[in-house]
């Protein structure tokens, strides 16, 4: 039977274009045969969350909006790593750089934007990058392992997020800005000064009113020269000075462009059958760079393509609600005073709160909120609607509800328009959330998140989502608990208790008996159930490989180009000439593109083909370093008393003993250990999950540290005298954490949640420690080295025989 569907091609696999496709699939799922081309080797991901990836708070998998299965289930042909180089508008065909020629009936250009790179002398040097995609994040993470000083050019939102991430990576960061105060496009000067002070307390340095003149260095950057003659030392320069619409493809194809691709109110270009949406599009002279307007454009375009009557896109009044390095900030409309306007301000330096309203002709035309942004959505609605606020100004400024401000039912949220965007990260409107509650039966924030994606990214909109839930679900919301995911209302403790009570032994059995809302579960609950079952029944449960993420299924970290990295175990960071020679020979034999020292004192072989993994593991004949899973990663050590004149204990020996004791241990989140041979703490033991610091005559044991996106120093658990006691306490702590923490909960979060005293209360009783130690040894006794197992078992090895493809065809 001939497929009579029209051919729709989307150029650009980003947030705006794919959101338009999502809308179209809901309106007319069978109307089009859809093909998507994306230049990056990833499925559709949330670019807003790149700063979290940079700082280690999120993985690439966690910021993916639509995974490969989504494309497959909707019959979408996806080409990742393909750049469309030309369009034949007469024949209606697009051509990719990898030889694909694809016909179309309708074509959407969603080519996004490119970072603007200042044309400074020396800008081509190594170590000068932008902050725009996953590759930039990886470069920054790698640079932080070897270099110390970073300079970020640009004091806007993107620059500050890059700077915050680099701080978390342990670099010294200076932010260079040409203006006298930061984020001048979103904040007025008082709010900007408050933000700068907050960021300075976090360790950020600022060089304001600075004109960059040239980048210094030979092959690699060494510094940044300013017009006033001053020089800032730099091992890395990140340019975050703005973006420009990517219009090159459109220009050479005869599509009208100005700053962006020129479109009308229905997102149509001057050439029939070609549309543009997102950051690349210019509508009524404006190219938008915020998510909400781009999603509004996508909704109009989807209706147009589906043949559904719709008003055109009128343009957007923009607002920004964001969390800049942990600080809540909101701005909307015209927030600077102009002739004919007046401003009201409230400032509390002690609490760190600043509010400003700009009023013209008794209408709210702009607002700035710092520190307390709870009223942002309501203020933005008033700005858009042109509401008369005469007599209500002070109540609005101070956030005091009154009959004049409230809706007839006494709820300010009820007065918001249905098209008001609640979740700016994912473009979810009030109406979409209301529908999920009223028609979709969502009765918890978790269910709303699973259904609409509201609050699934930065979480800043969660209070508004909770308010809408209370408004539309009423008393029902009080009876429904938020579970581990949208598939169930059960929490972690309830699930574990029921698994234990009913002796449930498989993931499928748990979901069936505990009445999961979705038959197959989701990417969040399946790995957690797999872990809980393995933790409770270590000798009986058979690990369910399909419930693990890609990295854990293939026992290697997947890279942006679809290759993998191999990190063999190097106990305590201590190796030998023979071991180094073996690694070097294997790397040379398999033509590994890059060999790199990791932050955990190991060697990382990057760029390995999937089919080569078992052969490499076989020739290395070394244990897996488990750099890819929620397991014990590394035990970092200094040289301790073996060589250091300050060392008081054998740090290397203790580190090796700990690593050999707990390698292959499955845990709720990744676990890192360190042993410092003296209080100078060169191994950074006080920001690890379990840290050991040598003192005269014994060891300090520290717990709950984290060097990632949320830096947390450890808490002192206890002081012990002998090496055996270190192992005993470490065993007890790690097993207690395994048994009590939620899936994906790091020790830092767990310790803060349950409290240090409650952990001490359990572990200070030796009978408890010995019982926990026995249970962890039972769990460890059934583990095997995955690399060796795959090498020796033909059935497992077969999974690696074919190339892993990052596309659905």
Automatic annotation (TrEMBL):
GO BP term, example: nitrate assimilation
The keyword Iron is annotated on this UniProt entry: yes
The record's free-text note on cofactor binding: Binds 1 [4Fe-4S] cluster per subunit.
Binding positions for [4Fe-4S] cluster per the UniProt entry: 638, 644, 678, 682
Domain NADH-rubredoxin oxidoreductase C-terminal: 319-386
A molecular function (GO) term: 2 iron, 2 sulfur cluster binding
Pathway where this protein functions: Nitrogen metabolism; nitrate reduction (assimilation)
BFD-like [2Fe-2S]-binding domain sequence ranges: 421-470, 484-533
Residues annotated to bind siroheme: 682
Pfam family, one: NIR_SIR_ferr
Keywords: 2Fe-2S, 4Fe-4S, FAD, Flavoprotein, Heme, Iron, Iron-sulfur, Metal-binding, Nitrate assimilation, Oxidoreductase
Domain Nitrite/Sulfite reductase ferredoxin-like intervals: 559-621
Residues passing through the membrane, by range: none
Boundaries of every FAD/NAD(P)-binding domain copy: 7-283
Top-level taxon of the source organism: Bacteria
Cofactor dependency: [4Fe-4S] cluster; [2Fe-2S] cluster; FAD; siroheme
Keyword Heme: yes
Start and end residues of each Nitrite/sulphite reductase 4Fe-4S domain: 629-767
Family: Belongs to the nitrite and sulfite reductase 4Fe-4S domain family.
Name under which the protein is recorded: Nitrite reductase
Lineage: Bacteria, Bacillati, Bacillota, Bacilli, Bacillales
